[in-house]
Design goal:
By secondary structure, this protein is an alpha+beta fold. It contains four helices and ten strands. It has one domain. It is 25% helix and 19% strand.
Length: 248
């Protein structure tokens, strides 16, 4: 009888305990992104008024082999581990979690750290009138694929920096969009493709917002952090007032 009562209590408490663990990881994730935001603020002080946006470490064969946004912020962080979401699993053969500085800064492969880590910069063009010198040594519209950094001044690269996500929980996912997110082969991502792209949810392996701890933690360009239901982020439409992942 006592054993049966204990088993019943455990079955009743287990969901609450699981939710509490996820919420604790979400709080820790928000704190980590806040630290990254402070690092970006110090970076701005050294390189006013910019934040790094390059999605990966480019090979030295380019005219401008830019470092990724994470490599640029690394000197301003207390540890490379700040770049790991506490809710990201350390999967054997995967790349959601960094284990060393070298894993963050490597240029050994074509995509460097492009398919690694648990936080990704928003992968989209800047406002039309904004341009930078790109990896080819040419001036072109700002884009994380080939830009080193964007200005945080209002109306430059972003219309309203305080209303636009800079980086967020991310991973490589394939198949239908599900919540919580299932990472494809445990692979991470250094960027998030904006959900308005046609292949975001069609089953193609895509860099998506990750739902690891009852929502997605998001770092905004101005340094504040907020958590959203991942489904709500995915449902936003560019150009609308409530869309926080576009540049408008």
């Amino acid at each position: 009888m006592v054993v049966a009562i204990i088993a019943l209590l455990v079955s009743l408490l287990a969901p609450a305990l699981s939710r509490a663990r996820l919420l604790a990881r979400r709080v820790a994730c928000s704190a980590g992104l806040s630290s990254i935001g402070r690092a970006a603020a110090v970076y701005q002080a050294d390189s006013p008024p910019y934040v790094p946006v390059s999605w990966r470490n480019h090979e030295l064969t380019y005219a401008n082999p830019w470092d990724s946004w994470r490599t640029c912020l690394l000197p301003y962080l207390s540890s490379f581990e700040t770049l790991n979401c506490p809710g990201a699993p350390d999967v054997a053969g995967g790349s959601l979690v960094f284990h060393s500085v070298e894993e963050v800064t490597t240029r050994e492969e074509w995509d460097g750290t492009g398919v690694a880590g648990s936080y990704g910069v928003i992968y989209q063009k800047s406002l039309p009138g904004y341009s930078t010198e790109d990896i080819y040594g040419e001036v072109s519209i700002g884009h994380p694929a080939y830009s080193p950094a964007w200005s945080v001044q209002s109306g430059a690269a972003w219309h309203h920096p305080g209303q636009s996500i800079y980086a967020a929980d991310s991973c490589l996912a394939s198949g239908p969009v599900v919540y919580p997110t299932v990472a494809h082969k445990g692979i991470g991502a250094s960027m998030v493709i904006h959900p308005s792209r046609e292949w975001y949810g069609d089953g193609t392996a895509t860099y998506r917002f990750a739902d690891r701890h009852l929502g997605t933690c998001c770092l905004f360009v101005d340094g504040h952090v907020a958590t959203y239901a991942t489904a709500a982020l995915d449902a936003m439409k560019p150009g609308q007032a409530d869309c926080v992942w576009d540049v408008e």
